[in-house]
Amino acid sequence: xxxxxxxxxxxxxxxxxxxxxxxxxxxxxxxxxxxxxxxxxxxxxxxxxxxxxxxxxxxxxxxxxxxxxxxxxxxxxxxxxxxxxxxxxxxxxxxxxxxxxxxxxxxxxxxxxxxxxxxxxxxxxxxxxxxxxxxxxxxxxxxxxxxxxxxxxxxxxxxxxxxxxxxxxxxxxxxxxxxxxxxxxxxxxxxxxxxxxxxxxxxxxxxxxxxxxxxxxxxxxxxxxxxxxxx
Amino acid sequence: xxxxxxxxxxxxxxxxxxxxxxxxxxxxxxxxxxxxxxxxxxxxxxxxxxxxxxxxxxxxxxxxxxxxxxxxxxxxxxxxxxxxxxxxxxxxxxxxxxxxxxxxxxxxxxxxxxxxxxxxxxxxxxxxxxxxxxxxxxxxxxxxxxxxxxxxxxxxxxxxxxxxxxxxxxxxxxxxxxxxxxxxxxxxxxxxxxxxxxxxxxxxxxxxxxxxxxxxxxxxxxxxxxxxxxx
Amino acid sequence: xxxxxxxxxxxxxxxxxxxxxxxxxxxxxxxxxxxxxxxxxxxxxxxxxxxxxxxxxxxxxxxxxxxxxxxxxxxxxxxxxxxxxxxxxxxxxxxxxxxxxxxxxxxxxxxxxxxxxxxxxxxxxxxxxxxxxxxxxxxxxxxxxxxxxxxxxxxxxxxxxxxxxxxxxxxxxxxxxxxxxxxxxxxxxxxxxxxxxxxxxxxxxxxxxxxxxxxxxxxxxxxxxxxxxxx
Amino acid sequence: xxxxxxxxxxxxxxxxxxxxxxxxxxxxxxxxxxxxxxxxxxxxxxxxxxxxxxxxxxxxxxxxxxxxxxxxxxxxxxxxxxxxxxxxxxxxxxxxxxxxxxxxxxxxxxxxxxxxxxxxxxxxxxxxxxxxxxxxxxxxxxxxxxxxxxxxxxxxxxxxxxxxxxxxxxxxxxxxxxxxxxxxxxxxxxxxxxxxxxxxxxxxxxxxxxxxxxxxxxxxxxxxxxxxxxx
DNA sequence: TATGAATGAGGTTTCATTCAT
DNA sequence: TATGAATGAAACCTCATTCAT
Lengths: 231, 231, 231, 231
Fold this sequence. Notes:
Chains A, B, C, D: Residues 39-99 form the HTH tetR-type domain. The structure is a homotetramer. By secondary structure, chain A is an all-alpha fold.
């Protein structure tokens, strides 16, 4: 009803240099300690919010629960985020950015394309499928239509890069003769599809029928590269 | 604001017995009109609820909006459904059951396995990808974890049958020499994965990068069956 | 799910003479049958409403439940009563009037005053305490403040008459030397108080500590008339 | 319309620690004012709820009205009580506990039994009959059957103790020769009955026929103890 | 900066009453 | 006359957001 701008929303970056210098007298290192504590709190909120949003979805998540889980008061959340909606949006960014960063820090592309992709799949298996990170993917699928900015961000930062990267690998594989199906480069989604399905399957159907994602991905690669010799 | 019948929503089954007594000439009394109107209303509610749940997800959907869209009063919804939650659960059943029924009315399996699967993919393309039915799939992915009964139902009625059916086709393809990769029968998910990805892609990223699902599926089948001759 | 009329609720008695008479022409006694049916229905509604109002109080009673219990449709209630409120008010009248009528049909006042009062107490014990009629008293105590017309009616028809009657008996007792405490005639409530308490006790505390109302009333009369010889 | 603090409702116990820190001199910060305000609010809610429940009964009372009367927002009620039902149950406890406490702080039993009982009756007259406390008794009679926990509590804390206390006094009276009717000790309800009737009479029939409760109780005691000399 | 009590709009659900059949 | 589907006002309760401390 009353609309008051609430400058509390500043990102931690903003926040960092927003420190006001201490009361006269004794203030040895508390400045950094202050900032550190704030960053910790923010991290706790982000972590807690992730858990809750994943468990319940955006609309059904209560800030009260996030606060409780993060060990802060409800009001504190508003010192870090403008409101629930932008918290969700920032959240996705905050969690995804380091993933993208890691992807960009490519390992030097040595070995065969199959080996490269197998390595990649291995990481994906370990760090995404069946983990909270995987659930985040499902969360984005779930909330994307209501949060275009989230879908935009996710497409721009993750999907389009992932597709481009895969396309590059596929073209390399084709050039080297490892991959026969030339049209695959036009639809790198095909390469990724089983991995995505595995992510979703773990969230929804794991208890009905557990899925050996690793083995499935291997079969999929055999399909693309032809039968392999060893593992 | 009030009254906006929207009888468009009725499933064809509902529709069948919702008709007055068809025989032309005799139309003295609107005999079954009471029951018919009730069925129409119920169908309108189902249709409206589908739209709203798909557009906003379970928690963010307001019964008020469903009622408005269905052209009924809020209270009317409660004549048909116990509460919001069971409305959602029944909804999924109501919409999915006829789909399953249609799948069970198999077309006589003639021709090559590839042809069979292409036909199937064609239907899927036309009737699921990019349609409200596709959005329902996304909705189930989104809400499944919070509605185990929905996930259970969907697994039992759709997923497990779909997987089984695909496995059968794959085995046939292997037996006939159409499919070389024998392990594929262990993971029919691989066969379906690109189709599922297409469904999700249309919901989330169509406006960022339109996807020619038909062509993608064709490439995927080439990968599995080897290069095709004709279309 | 779909609402199945359930007119099954009618008692078999109702049902028996529920026969509708034949096609036009023959209309022997249907007028009376009509009226009879209506009266029966009304009686069923009154009975059902009593039960429900006693069990739940005015506000918490649902017309739906009354209708169900009476074996009529909800709308039918409105053919007999203007609305819930006046139904309640009329109800009290309907149930109480015959009681008053019976009281007015006094048994010829023979014997000692104590015998008269003992007879009266005996009837009260049998017909009020621990019965639905007793619950009605509690209901009036409960709802009286919100239904002045009910309280008025009850005071006028029952309380004031009862008090007057008791006062007459007390004065007779005093005149005959059966009762020593002359001031008792000024407060006949004292004579009735334990009986009323018994009514309330049965409703509220019977399961905590059963009360032998008969014996209590006897002790009370001993107090007023002096020790008795026999029962 | 908004804001009508009504702090009058606090029980004396609440009030005690609702005060700021009394020790004069040190009053720099309104230290406990947070807690104090909370206690005040709670007391206001309790008071308002009492009024409304008494005026309308449980089912017909609107939380909105309680909030308005207490001068708080609707949501505030839920900071103090789980829901309407448990609010009602707690309410009875909150109001009755101090009464019981006061009863337990017995005045030294000096004088004759009749004097003792007259004193007690006098207090009852002043503090219960015709007061809101009396209305509470009627409310319990009204709602008891639907709130077994309330009836239980009331029986345990008030009725059973009251009965036991009265029985003790009666036995004392019999032992001292003040009371002749020995069976009275078996039904102390008889001793209390006119007082209870007075309570109910005031709620329901005061405007039809005012009742001089004091005089009635005196007559009742005369009946039990024999004619008195003085007042 | 951090808190959490307080707010009140808004959501779900109930139910007295109406009215077309 | 009787029905019961439909209505929609109104009740309870939740929870994002604010703000005094």
